[in-house]
Structure formats: structure tokens, C-alpha cells
Amino acid sequence: MSLLFPLLLALALVAIPGAHGSCPVPADLKREDGTRTCAKLYDKSDPYYENCCQGAELSLEPGSDLPFLPSGWANTASSLVVAPRCELTVWSRPGKSGKTHKFSAGSYPRLEEYRRGIFGDWSNSISGLYCK
In Å, how far are 1, 4, 13, 35, 109 from 7, measured between CA atoms? Predict the structure, then answer.
């Protein structure tokens, strides 16, 4: 019984709407003119999920291919959201080199939770990307 309680608690937290913080719903990634956005990167995250996906944001159109991120965005993203039917591939070094990871459709409020090798994580580690 004691092992069942933490499992039920974890399932309840996943089922609660808004448990993934203030990140937008992936299906809502659209511009004001209605055109589609493939993904959004944010420069702020927090140990509290409701404070994630904050700060400056970088919107990516479908087909965005950035081996070198715009000024001020290299190794800055700490939260991201990927739209449905999109996939975001990221690299840890400029020029699409180093470690790589693919993020499918969904919200990723804390990139600290996604491993980049043995000793690192993806928070403040994205230096190149491709969104399809």
C-alpha cells in the first residue's frame, strides 16, 4: 500500500490541468495573423512549474533551420513548447555539432529535466536547431 500512494499522487498531478505550468498549450502556438508557429523557446524557467515559459521568447516557423542562433539566444533557452505535428531538433554546439536531442510536440517547462549526456542537461545548452 505504501508504494501505491506515491504512484497515485504522481498520476493525479499529471491529470490536473495546468500541472505543466504557465507554458502555452502546444495547439495554441499561432501568431496573431493565424499563421502557424512550429515552436517557441523561452529564456526563463523556475523550480515552480507555474513560473516557467516566461521572459523573452523566440518563435520558430515551420522549416526554421538555425545552425547559429540569433544574438543573445545561444545557450539561453531554458523552456520550450513544440506545436503538434512538429519536431524540434537541437544541438549543443554552434553549426549543428555536439550533442543532439529531438523534442516532439508538447510542453517542456524545465529543460533541466532532460539529460544531455552523463553530466549535463539541456537548460541553457541549445546552440543550433531545426524545426520541421
Answer: 10, 5, 10, 40, 22
- 73: in domain: yes
In a domain, 97, yes or no: yes
Query: What would the mean pLDDT of 69-95 be, rounded to a whole number?
Result: 95
User: 3-state secondary structure string, the chain?
Assistant: CCCHHHHHHHHHHHHCCCCCCCCCCHHHCECCCCCECCEEEEEECCCCHHHCCEEEEEEECCCCEECCCCCCCCCCCCEEEEEEEEEEEEEEECCCEEEEEEEEEEEECCHHHCEECCCEECCCCCCEEEEC
Average the pLDDT over 36-57 and give the result: 90
